[in-house]
Specification:
With about 170 residues, the chain is of the alpha+beta class. The chain contains four helices and four strands; from the N terminus they run αββααββα.
């Protein structure tokens, strides 16, 4: 195995493990320190901590599914997808640094939430943002990892598109 590939694997694993660790440490702290539905205003009413156990996916989608469907859609399929993404980043010889980072963030965040679903049958969400018309659902650090990873990949695509347009016009 060449050095470049080893570095790529090492970087991906560091990012994945860092994201899982950040997610699990913050969730453990919330489980210990905040009672269910307690509200703690961190920055006025713009950033609030509140502990919610989410038995579904984002915004509680799928919370009312049968246990068998929850297992399929909230654990098995996501595990398969994350495994596929990991294999992709290992095999893809020309993956950009931004895509490698983005996919690694997504994998780390995904594993963090799947771990909760397997261990606790729910995901601990605890952060809420609101500013004017903008507001979020209650989320956690794994969700942040997935969003940041997705933004890295999208930004990479925008950069590639712009550079391709410049090459075509040159």
């Amino acid at each position: 195995m060449n050095t470049k590939r080893l570095i790529k694997i090492f970087v991906a694993l560091i990012i994945i493990v860092s994201n899982i660790s950040c997610d699990q440490i913050t969730k453990e702290k919330v489980r210990e320190e905040i009672t269910t539905n307690e509200t703690i205003e961190v920055i006025n009413n713009h950033f609030i901590l509140t502990k919610v156990e989410n038995t579904g996916a984002a915004l509680s989608l799928g919370a009312n599914l049968s246990p068998a469907l929850k297992l399929l859609f909230l654990q098995l399929i996501p595990i398969f997808v994350l495994f596929y993404i990991f294999i992709y980043i290992l095999r893809e010889k020309n993956i950009s640094k931004m895509s490698l980072i983005g996919f690694s963030f997504i994998i780390g965040g995904g594993i963090g939430n799947i771990y909760d679903r397997i261990l606790f049958n729910s995901v601990t969400d605890f952060m809420y943002l609101e500013y004017g018309y903008f507001h979020t659902g209650v989320f956690n650090m794994a969700d942040v990892s997935v969003v940041v990873g997705t933004l890295f990949i999208l930004l990479n695509q925008v950069i590639l598109e712009r550079s391709n347009k410049r090459l075509k016009t040159a």
